[in-house]
Write a structure and sequence with these properties.
By secondary structure, the protein is α/β, with parallel strands linked by helices. 37% of the residues lie in helices and 29% in strands. It has a 6-stranded mixed beta sheet with strand order 6-7-8-3-9-10, with helices on both faces. A 4-stranded antiparallel beta sheet has the order 2-1-4-5, with helices on one face. A 4-stranded antiparallel beta sheet has the order 12-13-11-14. Bound molecules: adenosine-5'-triphosphate. Residues 4-234 form the ABC transporter domain.
Length: 313
């Protein structure tokens, strides 16, 4: 069952096509990853999916609500964990949670119960009386998440919630996401960390320059690069053109891309065996090579293969 539906959605900002026309659906209860480098359009998509911005064209529905017409309803079922910390630093965690709960018109008795449950979830009960200004970056992020969950939303948008924090807090965030999944929440998670997308998400949309370049179950995406990728650097562009013609004939190579002196090869057999065959073929043609790099199949290599770029510069 589709829960969030984007149909032909495009967004232009200051004459720039930030989101190209795209359509996809997110299922109820799934953890859906938006993976892409800086500037790919992840935050803009979340902002439109939470009805904070409208698309320039196309339609977005969240639950049964249309973002162009039912902003209030959408805000009541969505919890947003923004990329930047949005807390009152002179107030403690309780006062921050109370304040944001009041914006949702929650009852006093419900607020107390919910706060206790959430502080336990984010593992900060023992620090909840201290002002936020005394918290580490990771602790602030965890309270930021608790704030987004105060009104018990069905859907949780998390915009790069682990950027720039210590590994301990990062692990605590992963643990709390597992708890939210177990509660059946629908989670949309943006990241440019491919390990996170692989470990946390049921399905992933890979975004680049406002376009979905691939969307599938995480394990299916990994199959795109089969056993792995071999990247060869030849001594000249001429040599790489010649190598391209030679190597694309090899049975063990399912795809071959050439970019200047570099060749990117997707191989279908064990990478080491493929390299032996590649070397033999290049030697036979006396084609000189400068460097060879092996890349394991992961979402980083899928992204590299699909876009010719790395996720992080
Ligand atoms: N208000 C704005 N006016 C003009 N361009 C904008 C505006 N907001 C965002 N953009 C541009 O839209 C593109 C997508 O930005 P967005 O923040 O959605 O990307 P992102 O994938 O979330 O990146 P990051 O990981 O850095 O947050 C970028 O090129 C950005 O410069």
């Amino acid at each position: 069952m589709s829960y969030i539906e984007l149909t032909d959605v495009a967004k232009t900002m200051k004459d720039k096509n930030v989101i190209q026309e795209l359509s996809f659906r997110i299922r109820e209860g799934e953890t859906f990853g938006l993976l892409g480098p800086n500037g790919a359009g992840k935050t803009t998509l979340l902002s439109m999916m939470s009805a904070n911005q409208l698309p320039t064209s196309g339609r977005i529905t969240v639950g049964q609500y249309d973002t162009a017409m039912d902003q209030k309803k959408i805000k009541s079922i969505v919890g947003i964990v923004p990329q930047d910390i949005s807390l009152y630093s002179s107030l403690n965690a309780y006062d921050n949670l109370r304040f944001f709960a009041s914006l949702y018109g929650m009852k006093k008795r419900d607020i107390q119960k919910r706060m206790e449950w959430l502080l336990d979830l984010v593992q900060l009960t023992d620090r909840a009386h201290e002002p936020i200004s005394q918290y580490s970056g990771g602790m602030k992020r965890r309270i930021n998440i608790a704030v987004a969950l105060m009104h018990d939303p069905h859907i949780v948008y998390m915009d790069e919630p682990t950027v720039g924090i210590d590994p301990q807090s990062r692990n605590k965030i992963y643990e709390l996401i597992e708890e939210l999944k177990a509660l059946g929440k629908t989670i949309i998670y943006t990241t440019h960390y491919m390990e996170e997308a692989t470990n946390l998400c049921d399905r992933v949309a890979i975004l680049d320059q406002g376009e979905v370049v691939a969307l599938n179950e995480t394990m299916e995406l990994l199959k795109i690069v089969q056993s792995g990728i071999v990247e060869l650097t030849m001594t000249s562009e001429n040599a790489s053109e010649m190598a391209f013609k030679t190597l694309k004939q090899l049975m063990c190579i399912t795809s071959c891309q050439v970019n200047g002196k570099k060749l990117t090869l997707v191989v279908s057999i064990k990478v080491q065996d493929a390299i032996s065959k590649i070397m033999a073929a290049l030697n036979q043609q006396s084609l000189p090579m400068e460097d060879v790099k092996i890349m394991q199949p992961n979402l980083e290599t899928v992204f590299l293969y699909l876009t010719g770029k790395t996720l992080r510069d």
